[in-house]
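Sanity check. The docking grid for adenosine monophosphate depends on where the pocket ends up, so I'm generating a full predicted complex first rather than guessing from homology. Inputs follow.
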Amino acid sequence: MIIASSKHELKQRINDIKNTGTIAFVPTMGALHLGHLSLIEKASKYADNVIVSIFVNPKQFNDYKDYALYPKTLDADLEKIAKTKARLVYTPQEEDLYPQGFSTQISVKGLTDILCGKSRPGHFDGVALVVTKLFMQVMPDYAIFGEKDFQQLQVIKKLVHDLDINVNIIPGETIREQDGLALSSRNVRLNEKQRSIASSIFKLMTNIKDQYNKGDHDIHNLSSMGKDFLINQGFDSVDYIEILSESNLSTPTDKDDNLRIFVAATLGSCRLIDNLSLT
Ligand code: AMP
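Predicted complex below; grid placement will be based on this.
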Protein backbone atom coordinates (compact mmCIF):
# COMPACT_ATOMS: atom_id res chain seq x y z
CA MET A 1 0.00 0.00 0.00
CA ILE A 2 1.35 3.38 -1.00
CA ILE A 3 0.94 6.42 1.28
CA ALA A 4 1.00 9.80 -0.43
CA SER A 5 1.02 12.58 2.13
CA SER A 6 1.20 15.56 -0.22
CA LYS A 7 -0.30 16.46 -3.58
CA HIS A 8 3.19 16.23 -5.12
CA GLU A 9 3.60 12.65 -3.92
CA LEU A 10 0.13 11.85 -5.22
CA LYS A 11 0.95 13.39 -8.60
CA GLN A 12 4.12 11.28 -8.89
CA ARG A 13 2.09 8.10 -8.39
CA ILE A 14 -1.24 8.78 -10.07
CA ASN A 15 -0.19 8.37 -13.72
CA ASP A 16 1.45 5.00 -13.01
CA ILE A 17 -1.71 3.85 -11.28
CA LYS A 18 -3.92 5.13 -14.10
CA ASN A 19 -1.80 3.16 -16.58
CA THR A 20 -2.71 -0.05 -14.76
CA GLY A 21 -6.46 0.50 -15.07
CA THR A 22 -9.46 2.27 -13.59
CA ILE A 23 -9.61 4.04 -10.20
CA ALA A 24 -12.37 3.95 -7.58
CA PHE A 25 -12.01 6.59 -4.90
CA VAL A 26 -13.25 6.64 -1.29
CA PRO A 27 -12.88 10.06 0.37
CA THR A 28 -13.03 10.02 4.19
CA MET A 29 -12.22 12.16 7.19
CA GLY A 30 -10.53 9.24 8.95
CA ALA A 31 -11.43 7.69 12.33
CA LEU A 32 -12.34 4.75 10.16
CA HIS A 33 -15.01 2.20 11.07
CA LEU A 34 -16.72 -0.69 9.32
CA GLY A 35 -18.89 1.74 7.34
CA HIS A 36 -15.82 3.22 5.66
CA LEU A 37 -14.32 -0.24 5.14
CA SER A 38 -17.53 -1.38 3.41
CA LEU A 39 -17.12 1.49 0.93
CA ILE A 40 -13.52 0.43 0.25
CA GLU A 41 -14.72 -3.14 -0.34
CA LYS A 42 -17.43 -1.88 -2.68
CA ALA A 43 -14.91 0.31 -4.52
CA SER A 44 -12.74 -2.75 -5.22
CA LYS A 45 -15.65 -4.30 -7.13
CA TYR A 46 -15.88 -1.35 -9.51
CA ALA A 47 -12.30 -0.62 -10.48
CA ASP A 48 -8.80 -2.08 -10.80
CA ASN A 49 -7.36 0.32 -8.21
CA VAL A 50 -8.81 1.75 -5.00
CA ILE A 51 -7.61 5.06 -3.60
CA VAL A 52 -8.72 6.20 -0.13
CA SER A 53 -8.20 9.73 1.18
CA ILE A 54 -8.07 10.88 4.79
CA PHE A 55 -8.51 14.59 5.37
CA VAL A 56 -10.48 16.36 8.09
CA ASN A 57 -11.74 19.23 5.97
CA PRO A 58 -11.90 22.41 8.07
CA LYS A 59 -14.08 24.16 5.47
CA GLN A 60 -17.05 21.87 6.07
CA PHE A 61 -17.23 22.49 9.83
CA ASN A 62 -19.49 25.40 10.69
CA ASP A 63 -18.71 24.84 14.38
CA TYR A 64 -15.04 25.15 15.40
CA LYS A 65 -15.59 23.04 18.54
CA ASP A 66 -16.88 20.15 16.41
CA TYR A 67 -13.74 20.42 14.22
CA ALA A 68 -11.45 20.52 17.25
CA LEU A 69 -13.21 17.50 18.80
CA TYR A 70 -13.23 15.45 15.58
CA PRO A 71 -11.34 12.18 16.32
CA LYS A 72 -7.95 11.83 14.61
CA THR A 73 -6.55 8.27 14.53
CA LEU A 74 -4.23 8.20 11.50
CA ASP A 75 -2.01 5.26 12.56
CA ALA A 76 -4.97 3.01 13.36
CA ASP A 77 -6.65 4.11 10.10
CA LEU A 78 -3.60 3.17 8.03
CA GLU A 79 -3.47 -0.24 9.74
CA LYS A 80 -7.11 -0.84 8.85
CA ILE A 81 -6.66 0.24 5.23
CA ALA A 82 -3.55 -1.96 4.91
CA LYS A 83 -5.85 -4.99 5.42
CA THR A 84 -8.08 -3.96 2.48
CA LYS A 85 -7.52 -4.02 -1.26
CA ALA A 86 -6.72 -0.28 -1.37
CA ARG A 87 -3.68 0.54 -3.49
CA LEU A 88 -2.99 4.06 -2.24
CA VAL A 89 -3.94 6.24 0.72
CA TYR A 90 -3.84 9.99 0.18
CA THR A 91 -3.35 11.99 3.39
CA PRO A 92 -2.99 15.58 2.17
CA GLN A 93 -2.04 18.52 4.37
CA GLU A 94 -4.27 21.59 4.44
CA GLU A 95 -2.00 23.53 2.02
CA ASP A 96 -2.26 20.71 -0.54
CA LEU A 97 -5.95 21.51 -0.88
CA TYR A 98 -6.12 25.14 0.15
CA PRO A 99 -2.83 26.89 -0.66
CA GLN A 100 -2.27 30.38 0.70
CA GLY A 101 -4.59 32.90 -0.89
CA PHE A 102 -7.17 30.26 -1.84
CA SER A 103 -10.39 32.11 -2.64
CA THR A 104 -12.68 29.88 -4.72
CA GLN A 105 -16.11 28.78 -3.49
CA ILE A 106 -18.52 26.19 -4.82
CA SER A 107 -22.21 26.25 -3.89
CA VAL A 108 -24.78 23.69 -4.98
CA LYS A 109 -27.98 25.68 -4.60
CA GLY A 110 -31.41 24.29 -3.70
CA LEU A 111 -30.47 20.87 -2.35
CA THR A 112 -28.36 22.55 0.33
CA ASP A 113 -31.03 24.93 1.69
CA ILE A 114 -32.81 22.13 3.55
CA LEU A 115 -32.15 19.48 6.24
CA CYS A 116 -28.49 19.75 7.40
CA GLY A 117 -27.90 22.72 5.08
CA LYS A 118 -30.31 24.81 7.17
CA SER A 119 -28.70 24.10 10.52
CA ARG A 120 -25.09 23.93 9.31
CA PRO A 121 -24.64 26.99 7.08
CA GLY A 122 -21.68 26.63 4.72
CA HIS A 123 -21.28 22.92 5.45
CA PHE A 124 -22.19 21.68 1.97
CA ASP A 125 -20.14 24.44 0.29
CA GLY A 126 -17.15 23.04 2.18
CA VAL A 127 -18.04 19.49 1.14
CA ALA A 128 -18.54 20.48 -2.53
CA LEU A 129 -15.21 22.31 -2.52
CA VAL A 130 -13.12 19.53 -0.98
CA VAL A 131 -14.73 16.83 -3.13
CA THR A 132 -14.12 18.86 -6.30
CA LYS A 133 -10.48 19.45 -5.33
CA LEU A 134 -9.93 15.79 -4.46
CA PHE A 135 -11.55 14.73 -7.75
CA MET A 136 -9.22 17.08 -9.69
CA GLN A 137 -6.17 15.64 -7.90
CA VAL A 138 -7.10 11.93 -7.87
CA MET A 139 -8.96 11.85 -11.23
CA PRO A 140 -10.99 8.75 -10.35
CA ASP A 141 -13.39 6.89 -12.64
CA TYR A 142 -15.70 6.04 -9.72
CA ALA A 143 -16.24 7.54 -6.28
CA ILE A 144 -18.13 5.81 -3.48
CA PHE A 145 -20.20 7.83 -0.98
CA GLY A 146 -22.27 6.43 1.89
CA GLU A 147 -26.07 6.68 2.00
CA LYS A 148 -25.57 7.45 5.71
CA ASP A 149 -25.02 11.02 4.47
CA PHE A 150 -27.81 10.88 1.91
CA GLN A 151 -28.10 14.63 1.40
CA GLN A 152 -24.33 14.81 0.81
CA LEU A 153 -24.62 11.98 -1.75
CA GLN A 154 -27.33 13.89 -3.64
CA VAL A 155 -25.34 17.15 -3.48
CA ILE A 156 -22.30 15.40 -4.97
CA LYS A 157 -24.36 13.76 -7.73
CA LYS A 158 -25.71 17.22 -8.64
CA LEU A 159 -22.22 18.77 -8.46
CA VAL A 160 -20.66 16.28 -10.90
CA HIS A 161 -23.66 16.59 -13.20
CA ASP A 162 -23.65 20.40 -13.22
CA LEU A 163 -19.86 20.71 -13.65
CA ASP A 164 -19.48 17.83 -16.15
CA ILE A 165 -17.03 16.10 -13.83
CA ASN A 166 -16.37 12.71 -15.36
CA VAL A 167 -16.75 10.54 -12.23
CA ASN A 168 -19.43 7.90 -11.63
CA ILE A 169 -20.91 8.35 -8.16
CA ILE A 170 -21.74 5.03 -6.48
CA PRO A 171 -23.83 4.87 -3.27
CA GLY A 172 -22.81 2.57 -0.41
CA GLU A 173 -25.39 1.24 2.06
CA THR A 174 -25.36 2.33 5.70
CA ILE A 175 -23.60 -0.05 8.07
CA ARG A 176 -25.21 -0.25 11.53
CA GLU A 177 -24.48 -1.56 15.00
CA GLN A 178 -26.61 -4.53 16.12
CA ASP A 179 -29.16 -2.23 17.76
CA GLY A 180 -29.49 -0.20 14.57
CA LEU A 181 -27.31 2.81 15.40
CA ALA A 182 -25.55 3.90 12.19
CA LEU A 183 -21.77 3.72 12.55
CA SER A 184 -20.24 7.18 12.72
CA SER A 185 -16.81 8.53 13.67
CA ARG A 186 -18.57 10.86 16.12
CA ASN A 187 -20.15 7.97 18.09
CA VAL A 188 -16.99 7.67 20.24
CA ARG A 189 -18.08 10.95 21.87
CA LEU A 190 -21.23 9.31 23.30
CA ASN A 191 -21.08 8.19 26.92
CA GLU A 192 -22.67 4.87 27.93
CA LYS A 193 -26.09 6.36 28.68
CA GLN A 194 -26.12 8.45 25.50
CA ARG A 195 -25.01 5.42 23.49
CA SER A 196 -28.05 3.44 24.63
CA ILE A 197 -30.39 6.36 23.86
CA ALA A 198 -28.82 6.84 20.41
CA SER A 199 -30.34 3.68 18.93
CA SER A 200 -33.86 5.16 19.33
CA ILE A 201 -33.31 6.98 16.03
CA PHE A 202 -33.31 3.66 14.19
CA LYS A 203 -36.30 2.40 16.23
CA LEU A 204 -38.19 5.55 15.30
CA MET A 205 -37.35 5.31 11.60
CA THR A 206 -38.43 1.66 11.38
CA ASN A 207 -41.67 2.49 13.28
CA ILE A 208 -42.47 5.34 10.93
CA LYS A 209 -41.70 3.10 7.96
CA ASP A 210 -44.14 0.46 9.28
CA GLN A 211 -46.84 3.01 9.95
CA TYR A 212 -46.36 4.62 6.55
CA ASN A 213 -46.55 1.27 4.78
CA LYS A 214 -49.71 0.39 6.72
CA GLY A 215 -51.35 3.44 5.14
CA ASP A 216 -50.68 6.34 7.54
CA HIS A 217 -49.46 9.02 5.14
CA ASP A 218 -49.89 12.01 7.46
CA ILE A 219 -46.26 13.08 7.17
CA HIS A 220 -46.59 16.07 9.53
CA ASN A 221 -48.16 14.00 12.27
CA LEU A 222 -45.59 11.20 11.90
CA SER A 223 -42.83 13.78 12.15
CA SER A 224 -44.19 15.57 15.21
CA MET A 225 -44.89 12.27 17.02
CA GLY A 226 -41.33 11.27 16.16
CA LYS A 227 -39.93 14.45 17.76
CA ASP A 228 -41.86 13.76 20.98
CA PHE A 229 -40.60 10.16 20.97
CA LEU A 230 -36.92 11.15 20.65
CA ILE A 231 -37.18 13.80 23.36
CA ASN A 232 -38.92 11.27 25.66
CA GLN A 233 -36.12 8.80 24.96
CA GLY A 234 -33.59 11.37 26.23
CA PHE A 235 -32.37 13.34 23.20
CA ASP A 236 -31.47 16.94 24.08
CA SER A 237 -32.98 18.36 20.89
CA VAL A 238 -34.35 17.29 17.55
CA ASP A 239 -33.19 19.30 14.57
CA TYR A 240 -35.50 17.68 12.01
CA ILE A 241 -37.55 14.64 11.16
CA GLU A 242 -38.67 14.85 7.55
CA ILE A 243 -40.09 12.53 4.94
CA LEU A 244 -38.98 13.64 1.48
CA SER A 245 -38.85 12.45 -2.08
CA GLU A 246 -35.57 10.56 -2.50
CA SER A 247 -34.60 11.88 -5.93
CA ASN A 248 -34.65 15.63 -5.29
CA LEU A 249 -35.27 15.92 -1.53
CA SER A 250 -38.51 17.82 -2.11
CA THR A 251 -41.84 17.48 -0.29
CA PRO A 252 -43.44 14.35 -1.72
CA THR A 253 -46.33 14.56 -4.15
CA ASP A 254 -48.89 11.76 -4.64
CA LYS A 255 -46.87 10.54 -7.62
CA ASP A 256 -43.59 10.07 -5.67
CA ASP A 257 -43.02 6.45 -4.78
CA ASN A 258 -39.42 6.60 -3.51
CA LEU A 259 -39.64 8.32 -0.16
CA ARG A 260 -37.05 8.52 2.59
CA ILE A 261 -37.16 9.59 6.24
CA PHE A 262 -34.38 11.92 7.46
CA VAL A 263 -33.53 12.52 11.12
CA ALA A 264 -31.04 14.79 12.90
CA ALA A 265 -30.96 15.01 16.70
CA THR A 266 -28.48 16.01 19.37
CA LEU A 267 -27.20 14.09 22.40
CA GLY A 268 -24.71 16.09 24.47
CA SER A 269 -22.02 17.39 22.09
CA CYS A 270 -22.95 14.84 19.44
CA ARG A 271 -25.28 15.61 16.55
CA LEU A 272 -26.50 12.33 15.04
CA ILE A 273 -27.97 12.04 11.55
CA ASP A 274 -29.58 9.07 9.87
CA ASN A 275 -32.06 8.18 7.13
CA LEU A 276 -34.05 5.21 5.87
CA SER A 277 -35.89 4.40 2.69
CA LEU A 278 -39.64 3.96 3.24
CA THR A 279 -39.97 1.47 0.39
P1 AMP B 1 -16.71 10.68 6.81
O1 AMP B 1 -15.38 10.13 7.17
O2 AMP B 1 -17.66 10.76 7.94
O3 AMP B 1 -16.61 11.95 5.99
O4 AMP B 1 -17.35 9.62 5.82
C1 AMP B 1 -16.68 9.17 4.68
C2 AMP B 1 -17.64 8.34 3.87
O5 AMP B 1 -18.11 7.24 4.66
C3 AMP B 1 -18.89 9.14 3.44
O6 AMP B 1 -19.21 8.78 2.11
C4 AMP B 1 -19.93 8.65 4.42
O7 AMP B 1 -21.25 8.76 3.92
C5 AMP B 1 -19.52 7.20 4.60
N1 AMP B 1 -20.06 6.63 5.84
C6 AMP B 1 -20.06 7.21 7.07
N2 AMP B 1 -20.70 6.39 7.95
C7 AMP B 1 -21.10 5.30 7.25
C8 AMP B 1 -21.82 4.10 7.60
N3 AMP B 1 -22.25 3.88 8.84
N4 AMP B 1 -22.06 3.19 6.63
C9 AMP B 1 -21.61 3.41 5.35
N5 AMP B 1 -20.94 4.50 4.98
C10 AMP B 1 -20.68 5.45 5.90
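Relevant for the grid: The pocket of adenosine monophosphate is lined by residues 28-29, 35-36, 38-39, 145-146, 148-149, 172, 174-175, 182-185 (CB under 6 Å).
Also worth noting: The longest helix spans residues 123-138.
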